[in-house]
Amino acid sequence: MQTWSLVSVSVLLAVVVRWSVSLNSYSGAGKPPIFGDYEAQRHWQEVTYNLPVQEWYFNSTENDLNYWGLDYPPLTAYHSLICAYIAKIINPEWVELHKSRGYESPAHKLFMRTTVLVADILIYIPAVVLYCLYLTDGSSKKKVSNLLCFLLYPGIILIDYGHFQYNGVSLGFTLWGVLALGLGWDSPGSVAFCLALSYKQMELYHALPFFCYLLGKCFKLGLIGRGFFLLVRIATTVLVTFALCWLPFLSDPSQALQVVRRIFPVARGLFEDKVANAWCSLNILIKIKSILSSDSQLYLSIVCTLLAVLPSSVRLLIKPTFWQFKLALINSSLGFFLFSYHVHEKSILLAALPVCLLLNDLPLMCVWFLLISSFSMVPLLIKDGLLLPYAVTSVAFLYLAIYLLSALQRCSEEELRLYAYRRLFFCLPKLDLVCIVRWKFYLSVVIMAALSIASAALVPPPHLPDLFPVLVSAAAFLHFLGMFLYFNIVQFSSPPRRKTKKNN
Fold it and tell me: What pLDDT does 421 receive?
């Protein structure tokens, strides 16, 4: 009973923090004619409500795809339609075709913010609660501490409740998939991840680990016995789930093809804005877009992405344990973020989710990563007028993580999994790796604070207008690259020293 009381308080606090952030500005507020992601979500409600499903993804006089055309999979469109029906009941002007473009009002902002919170309460928050209670080791107090830190991760709060998106839906479905697989429920886990992938195509970042874990499990059981029947059951589940999600578009091949074209817009270029990945950072030294053709950029990113994500996925296929699965989710999503084509800064949330799954196992490294992931979006947050919420939520998260998770105390060489580094650098003098990691963490926090303050307070030189966004993205990229190497080394080294409950 006491545990559930603490869980209730944690959830209530998480809801209060989310709603407090939602009182601030949002993407594109008062900035015609294009506005921002807030208007994009409102416009999708307008389109899905007023036009037949066959016209949602096609350009026409009634649906100008150049003005926030729908470019997410069908489940996003269905979600927009549900919201639109509710909006129509409250105020028809919110979804009136053409005339509602750029609509802004306090009442509409309240409605839109509420839709995000309701989606979180229904999908994301229950998954977090159940994961922390049933798939996290330790005492009840420790589980609740992990729950609170998980729910108060600043990145997703600032983007969904500040900038304005529904990342909690796709990430929530993914987390339900992880939870189900952790409990040995392979078919429900497959359904949950198919829903995530049908909501946002960026969930492809997590697709390889899900595929390799389930396939590896089938191989382990034997493909001439139980493993074969498991494979057939999972394959059938996946096909039926996708068929139901895409059903309105399957009667006409041109419809399905147009949806695919919209959700994979290869014409948009290798990268956008100042995102903290390899291509944007490399572009500081080498102007890739000027040297390579669009096709060459696409092929280069595909090759580099595969080289980055395949080792951890193959390792998972050979050794399909839940620990390996969680690490592969991190390495795959981070590899996609660093090297794939046309990455947005907000896509780092896809890597942050699996990192949150290891808060109990690697507290210092995970807290460090989550702070960096929020910091990497500073230029976007400043643009949206969200600097104050960013500062408050980040400082609060850091304090709670250090206090509740004992992040700075639980950092022995064994707890940080640094024994692999000892073997890699056996020829070097024996160093105090724990001390080095601690001081790197302190230095990193100082750099994040300094660049955040400089980005907000200083005016860059006229000949370097993007100085601070470039510095932020480059600093975050170096951190992400180091973390990518670290989590790969951890995955290929020994399993955690604690015995965990065998769920598979």
Answer: 73
